[in-house]
């Protein structure tokens, strides 16, 4: 299995270089910022987790602009909520989560955005507290099989375990 994975990684790297996607320092995530391939959105996560926050933010912003990518909205919201590599901005983070919650992506990340947006509304992070709207969003996420949404509603006493 290790040989197969090594082959896949090598094949991907060689094909990316051959396509002219990478030049110079191939270990830098900055080379993926202007890529026209949507796979780069996943590299935003890797860039963030390895400490290249500047590249991660640029990748996520481009993915949102090009493809309205909800995965990127969620990760960029987390970066702004925590304030890693940027000034902490709960309002912008919550706006990104709302945008993701309103999108209906095929990958299912909008369900996760509904959960996070509902929590932000419930707790008043980056937005005024609106428990009625929060419960609506959390229930939508729960209906879309986001277990954390159900657990959150139970923890807050908004639904019982028997009704979940």
Say what the CATH topology is. Answer: Serine Threonine Protein Phosphatase 5, Tetratricopeptide repeat
Order of helices and strands: HHHHHHHH
Low-pLDDT segments: 1-25
CATH class: Mainly Alpha
Number of helices: 8
The named CATH superfamily: Tetratricopeptide repeat domain
Task: Write down how many β-strands occur, each being a DSSP E stretch of 2 or more residues.
Answer: 0
How confident is the prediction overall: mean pLDDT?
A: 86
Nearest-angstrom radius of gyration? 18 Å
What is the structural class?
Answer: mainly alpha
Number of domains: 1
> Can you give the helix content as a percent range?
55-70%
Structure commentary:
64% of the residues lie in helices and 0% in strands. With 164 residues, the protein is mostly helical. It has a single domain (29-163), classed as Alpha Horseshoe (Serine Threonine Protein Phosphatase 5, Tetratricopeptide repeat). Helix 2 (40-49) packs antiparallel against helix 3 (53-67), helix 4 packs parallel to helix 6 (109-123) and helix 6 packs antiparallel against helix 7.
What are the key terms here?
164 residues; mainly alpha; Serine Threonine Protein Phosphatase 5, Tetratricopeptide repeat; elongated
Quickly describe the structure.
The protein has 164 residues and is mainly α. It contains 8 helices and no strands.
């Amino acid at each position: 299995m290790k040989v197969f994975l090594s082959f896949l990684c090598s094949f991907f790297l060689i094909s990316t270089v051959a396509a002219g996607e990478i030049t110079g320092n191939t270990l830098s995530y900055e080379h993926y910022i202007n890529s026209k391939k949507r796979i780069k959105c996943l590299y935003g996560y890797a860039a963030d987790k390895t400490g290249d926050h500047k590249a991660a933010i640029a990748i996520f912003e481009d993915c949102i602009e090009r493809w309205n990518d909800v995965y990127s909205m969620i990760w960029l919201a987390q970066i702004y909520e925590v304030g890693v590599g940027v000034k902490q901005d709960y309002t912008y983070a919550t706006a990104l989560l709302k945008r993701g919650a309103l999108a209906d992506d095929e990958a299912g990340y909008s369900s996760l955005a509904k959960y996070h947006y509902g929590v932000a509304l419930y707790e008043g992070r980056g937005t005024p507290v609106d428990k009625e709207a929060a419960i609506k969003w959390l229930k939508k996420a729960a209906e879309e099989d986001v277990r954390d949404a159900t657990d959150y509603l139970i923890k807050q006493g908004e639904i019982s375990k028997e009704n979940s």
